[in-house]
Amino acid sequence: MIPVESFRGLKVAVVGLGGSGMVTAEALRAGGAVPILADDNAEAMARAAAAGFATDPLRDVDWRSLAALVLAPGVPLTHPRPHWSVDLALSHGVPILGDVELFCRERRARCPDAPLIAITGTNGKSTTTALIAHLLAHAGRDVQMGGNIGRAVLSLDPPQPGRHYVIECSSFQIDTTPSIDPTVGILLNLSEDHLDRHGTMANYAAIKERLVAGAATAIVGVDDPLSAAIADRVEQRGTRVVRISNRNPVAHGYYYEAGHIIEAATASATVAGDLGGIAALRGAHNGQNAAAAVAAVRALGLDHRTIMAGLRSFPGLAHRMELIGRRGRVLFVNDSKATNADSTAQALASFERIYWIAGGKPKTGGITSLESFFPRVAKAYLIGVATEEFADTLDGKVAYEKSGTVAAALEAAARDAAEDGAPESVVLLSPACASYDQFKNFEVRGDHFRSLVRQIDGLVLREGA
């Protein structure tokens, strides 16, 4: 744990007592602060009180006595409307921060030279984060990984010389991190997502821009107009910008081409990474993820041979294009982390004959943007709240059935795929939806799918799945 000493002796409100909220409270208490905890869930409040924390009603406390409000990522800051604690903080001039902001302050105070690699983007950030952490660890570096993936950032080990922090940052986390200042900041891409929390794409993009605007080196994907414009603006302000692409060559930076990561410099282009045969990095979308990772670790001093060895040993990310196993000519792939249409597009583009399990809590736009991939889908199996909306989109274009649950969808998809005469077919869970209508999060959804697949007779598991 990283004790938060910057609020020693001061009262700090902590709102939102999920995993990261409780870690934040513990870190504040360990650093000598006086945290006062609040959550709209009575059970969460009871657990906090049982852990010895003050749970005074925040609506009634003297807000002038509070040094800060620390808001958990799941608590609305602006949209659809600010949480009541946000209104109170703003009306009393109390700073509103997040756990990543507390981490950044502690890093600057304790060991500002400890490298911080911060990653954001609509899609691919978890894979990129895991890949960077793997490449650094494989090279023998001291690595701590967390944030929006795995461990809460304040649960990591304290900063010290040579310790590398590889931190995935969601837009919610960046929104409450005004002083984010990574050694290497990465923005992979931008597409419509989380507008229920940010209101407009302009707001969403502006929040993402903060991460690279504060970086010593900014690595920016330039395959969408919003990100390309951010790269230009950040560079004009004097930041070193490395552009990456999985679609087109770049003059200076890294791009993906025919299974290779190409490093481009003035009048030269050299192979910086070979993805051929690396199952965990299959698909053009992983070309961008790998390009960003290679650019990051090159900026941190890794050489070509070390990078190649690390790429070849990367096991992949759980729940993202995760090959669970094979039965005859049928592959079973867990892509539960695909919680929006753009992410699912990357999975659909990676296979030719797909039995697609889709649905959950739908996001703006549904799956209309995926129509160009429908010819790859032999049949769709619809689950959750999105069932009727997705059925309307697929009607007359793709065969489908309304399965309702993951278990029912998998049973039907496995049966139909087994009867397919194609050289290879894929049963693919790639929901294009959030999980919250049926599961706590996408990890639980993916674990459920993986467990069901493992029970299929005749399945040959992929090693480690």
From TrEMBL:
GO biological process, one term: cell wall organization
Keywords of this entry: ATP-binding, Cell cycle, Cell division, Cell shape, Cell wall biogenesis/degradation, Cytoplasm, Ligase, Nucleotide-binding, Peptidoglycan synthesis
Residues annotated as domain Mur ligase central: 119-297
Associated pathway: Cell wall biogenesis; peptidoglycan biosynthesis
Catalysed reactions listed for this entry: UDP-N-acetyl-alpha-D-muramoyl-L-alanine + D-glutamate + ATP = UDP-N-acetyl-alpha-D-muramoyl-L-alanyl-D-glutamate + ADP + phosphate + H(+)
GO molecular function: ATP binding; tetrahydrofolylpolyglutamate synthase activity; UDP-N-acetylmuramoylalanine-D-glutamate ligase activity
Function recorded in the entry: Cell wall formation. Catalyzes the addition of glutamate to the nucleotide precursor UDP-N-acetylmuramoyl-L-alanine (UMA).
Record family assignment: Belongs to the MurCDEF family.
Record's protein name: UDP-N-acetylmuramoylalanine--D-glutamate ligase
Species whose genome carries this gene: Prosthecodimorpha staleyi
Lineage: Bacteria, Pseudomonadati, Pseudomonadota, Alphaproteobacteria, Hyphomicrobiales
